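Morning!

This is the sequence you dropped in the shared folder:
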Amino acid sequence: MAFVPATIATTEFRRKARVSVGDRTKLLFLALAVLFGLGPVLVFGALLLPVAGEAVADGTVEAFGVITVTEIATGGVALLWLGLATLATIRTVTAVGDLDHPSSILVSTPLRNTVVGLICTELLVFGIWLLPISVVLSSAFAYGAGTVWPAVVGPVVVLVLLATTFPVGFAVGLGIRHLITVYEPIARFRTPLLVLVGVAYFGTIAMGWFDRVTIVLFDLFGESPLGWPGHLLLVGLPNVSPSTSHLAVSLIGSVALAGLAVTAATRIGAVHWYADPYRNDSETTSTHRPSSSRLSSLLEPGLSQPVRTVAITAIRRTKRAPIRLLYVAYPLFMAAFFVDEIARTGTIPSHLAVLVSLYVVWGAGALFTLNPLGDLGRARPVVLTSTISGRAAVTGQVVASTLVALPVAVVVSLGVGLVSPLTLAQTGLLVVGTVVGVLVSPALAIGVGSLFPRFGSVRLSSKREAVMPSKTAFLVYTLGLTVPVGAAAVIYADAADLIAAMLSALVGLAPVLEATIPASVIAGAAWVALPLGLAAPALSYRYAIRRFEGYVD
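The structure's back. Tokens below.
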């Protein structure tokens, strides 16, 4: 039975590789991550580590008296151990701990084989890129130090860390997953708990506390057993004496820790994978009639029954599957870059208040109207062949977006305006502009979504799929909002000269181009883009109606 974990690991690894290779978008983001994430690390490491190796060989690092080579090695290894263990824990909670076809795999082999196979899969996934990186960086250091030993022991240290962190992370992550999906006192508050964890994480980064926490962990765990494998990095280095006792204990302890973690993960898996997940009975048995009747009475004045039905159905459909709106929250991650400035100044900058209001306007159109045909799902043939008119169907989805976004627009724009340096008059204009934008952006979005629909589902994780708007619809809709807003800003601020000078400077950077963009061109483009942008929502709304009725015909 020893080959069973290897079979599980290689099968899962091939499946993950096929999914990644078959998704062009995922491949693109993976290539960008490698280029901009690992690329600078490899370049600067290849340039700086030979200098560091030479300094260690000459003994100049010890001469500073602030930190020793041993402290750097053990502290760095301890931080890497914590980082890998955290990564393994997060992946187990979010993806790895959720088995595909558990009724099949849990009865076909002993549970320990499943646990070992899943852990080995993660080791393969991360080992194939961590080991080559360690070879490059350790070889660069060995070149400067004048000895081959760093190039030999560097990958070994990475293997030791992987062999301990992923079993430990798997056991811890499986326990956390059991708490938030099965254990009722915690599972019932899973969503707010995960939101708090996410806010705390990004808040720590945005507030500049991440560096302080890293320094504390470096000092705290550098001399602990977590950092003892770092002594292996010191083997063969001149002017440095590693602790053989710490080195021996760390190697023996790594084997023991990995075995204990696998045993613990097997015990936790026996409890978690055979338990029924927590379900909120009050939510699953609710018919939603009270909320639907309240919405219907709210929409009754001035709206026909078909329009009300479409609007209520769109809201109810999203309420049942809120993960469909995950893409609306993506721009919020950019807010982390402004938290430090807000905390330092104690106020929201004027430009950020405007950006937040623009985000609300953008989100109003992205809520229910950016993929009107694709959102119908399996009901699309029934809806398109029913007696409902295109105007009623399109208006109902626009009303749904406006109904949800309008209160948010008023509260958010007024709040950010009052806490920013904007005057009361400017805050009033910001509120009015945001409200008007929320009223017209769904009309713009529904035409764009009808022109560039997406009917197939998109894989959000290894276990979840959802029908999302197409990337082309996102791009065109975003441009349809930002271009007229930018044109209005250019005209209002009389910034044509400044923008022309900036563009001319950018063009001048090209070695073969010499051109000056006149300010009149920028001003003319702004005056052309503004009326086109103002007319776009009405034209888009009419197009969506014709598109819907064309499907019916």
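Headline: Residues 24-58 form the longest helix (35 residues).

More detail when I'm at my desk.
O.
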